[in-house]
Amino acid sequence: METNQNLKFFIVDDDVFCSTVYEQYLRNQHYDNIISFTSGEECLDELYQKPDIIFLDHNMEEMNGFEVLKKIKRYDPNIYVIMVSAQENIMTAVDALKYGAFDYLVKDADVCEKMAQTIKKIINIKEEISQNKLKHFRKLFSFLF
């Protein structure tokens, strides 16, 4: 089972206020492995740290969220990327999902609660994958047990 301490988060947002709010909220939820970046380039340079979940702002200077998302997914398709944006445009959300985002959250008064719900979904998926791998492993090597 995945524990809060085992999850590594990246927060990528050029709005320092937003990233600080997200980071503090996650810390209040007992997550402590959090690194914040003010640009997509900084995040991409640190992917070797193997984050589990990246909260990625859509509208950033120099390299927008879609460009960063595509590069993250090329680097490691198993990283859960959640696009966060002030835009409530359905096409932006659809494009984010098309490029590999796990979810699309609108920056509003409930964004932190939505982040927590999305994290719970990801934890459940990771647990399910882990259980299925264990079942598959046991089935493959049943002659040993």
The biggest beta sheet is recorded as: 5 strands, parallel
Q: State the secondary-structure class.
A: alpha/beta
Global shape: globular
In percent, how much strand structure appears in the residues?
A: 15-25%
Low-confidence stretches: none
Roughly what is the average pLDDT, rounded to an integer?
90
Strand runs, count: 5
Strand order in the largest sheet: 2-1-3-4-5
The helix tally amounts to: 5
Distance between the termini: 23 Å
Helix content: 40-55%
Question: Could you state the order of secondary-structure elements as H and E?
Answer: EHEHEHEHEH
- The radius of gyration over CA amounts to 16 Å
Quick tags:
48% helix, 16% strand, alpha/beta, 5 helices, five-stranded parallel β-sheet, 5 strands, 145 residues
